[in-house]
Amino acid sequence: MQKITRWIIPLAALFALAAFIYIAPPGLLGKADAVGYAICHRIDERSFHLHDRQLPMCARDTGTFTSAGLTLLILALSKPKYAGMPSKKIIFALVAFFLAWAFDGANSYLYLIKQTYDGALSQIPNIYIPNNTLRLLTGTGMGMGMGATLFAAFNQTAWKKLDMRPALKDWRDLGTLVGILYLVALVILSESIIVLYPIAFISVFGVLALLSLIFSVVWMMIMRQENSFTNLKEMWIALSAGLTLALIMLLVIDLLRLRMTGTWGAFPMG
User: Fold this and answer.
1) Is 269 part of any domain?
2) In the structure, what pLDDT confidence band is assigned to residue 224 with cuts at 50, 70 and 90?
3) Is residue 158 part of a domain?
4) Predicted local confidence at residue 4, as pLDDT
5) Residue 229 forms beta bridges with which residues?
6) Are strands 82-84 and 49-50 parallel, antiparallel or unpaired?
7) Given this model, what pLDDT does residue 3 score?
8) pLDDT in tens, 125-161
9) Buried b / exposed e across 179-200, counting CB within 10 Å, b at 16+?
10) Count of alpha carbons within 13 Å of 237, Cβ hemisphere only?
11) Is residue 8 part of a domain?
12) Residue 11's domain spans which residues?
């Protein structure tokens, strides 16, 4: 079985990548848009812009997936095999970030419905007028929690010799990560083209990294390879399988949405 997968997985990865590139809009930003198209509504007014071109994802998802991707990268470089879940006090803080994200998202969605359908849900008041700054900041906190949790789950599944120390053990660890991620968020709020152009691709990296690691964990479990690796080189098949499945999922969603809407733009409202 291992010999077969050594051939099948790379071929499947190349096929999935080629198919994704083929159906995606032209240009590097077009390919980035196709990733965002699969996971985000891409409403223009709720997105940051490179001049008159919106980023691949809305402000909330830009914050979420930029933060998730950077969290995974920072933890992988600083504490590569730490497999412990965050300590209880840190989990409470991450839950608070999630609640802020959920609350702002619900308020924003309610506002969108009221704007789109005259008189809809008029009996439910909006607590405040949503804006892209809050979307970005709450998304940043959510992405940090997603990245930190997945980092621990992946390490618990992959490594033969487990190091159960948590990557986010105390307030110093959390504070350092929060400081870095919210500094990035503040720089994004400058809306400088010098900043937003790389952020477009960092957010796409976050999407691909999250999905690839999730599918890699699923692959390891299906193939009964849990806790059987000592280094990244040994798990190249599992990681390739994860990336392949992520690309296939994005490709299928893109094709279904394109067939439903007939456009690479935002979901039509009203």
Assistant:
1) no
2) very high
3) yes
4) 65
5) 159
6) unpaired
7) 61
8) 778 889 999 999 999 999 999 999 999 999 999 999 9
9) eebbebbeebeeeeeebbeebb
10) 16
11) yes
12) 2-258
pLDDT at 269 over 60: no
Which residues contact residue 263 at a Cβ distance below 8 angstroms, ignoring those fewer than 6 apart? none
* Bridge partner residues of 50 (DSSP): 53
Going by C-beta distance under 8 Å and a sequence separation of 6 or more, which residues neighbour residue 199? 55, 62, 66, 188
How do 49-50 and 53-54 pair as beta strands? Answer: antiparallel
Q: Read off the tokens for 13.
A: 């990865």
Which whole-number Å values give the CA distances from 7 to 1, 3, 19, 86, 198, in the listed order?
10, 7, 19, 38, 34
pLDDT of 119 reads 65
**Residue 125 has what pLDDT?**
75
261 against 207, higher pLDDT: 207
**Mean model confidence pLDDT for the chain:** 92
Helix orientation angle between 59-78 and 193-222, rounded to the nearest 10 degrees = 60
Nearest to 99 by CA among 141, 68, 69: 141
Nearest to 261 by CA among 33, 109, 37: 37
Q: Note whether residue 268 is domain-resident.
A: no
How many structural domains are present in the chain? 1
DSSP string covering 134-194: HHHHHHHHHHHHHHHHHHHHHHHHHBSS-EEEESS-SHHHHHHHHHHHHHHHHHHTTT-HH
